[in-house]
Write a structure and sequence with these properties.
Blueprint (H helix, E strand, L loop, with lengths): L1 E6 L6 H12 L3 H14 L1 E7 L1 H17 L5 E6 L1
Antiparallel strand pairs: 1-2, 1-3
Helix pairs in contact: 1-2
Length: 80
């Protein structure tokens, strides 16, 4: 299994991060806000734990979505 993580940066708006967590990771507003604050204060936050293929797909979707909206948000996966 693999953790999908969002990494903090100084440019991506907090609301955009919450939107990503709700859309791609199916978090409710409260969960998404909690993870976003974790990213903001600790430098990274876990979006979820998935099989390798699902994690890779989610990382790619988030990176494409962020790029399309001109945000430098980074999303990575690491073995759990």
């Amino acid at each position: 299994m693999y953790k999908v993580l969002l990494l903090n940066d100084d440019f991506t708006p907090m609301d955009f991060v919450v939107e990503i967590l709700q859309h791609f990771f199916h978090k409710n507003r409260e969960q998404a806000t909690h993870i976003m604050l974790q990213v903001h204060t600790q430098g990274r936050g876990v979006c979820g734990v998935y099989t390798k293929d699902v994690a890779a797909t989610k990382v790619e979707q988030v990176l494409q979505f962020a790029k399309a909206h001109q945000h430098p948000l980074q999303c990575v996966m690491e073995e759990n």
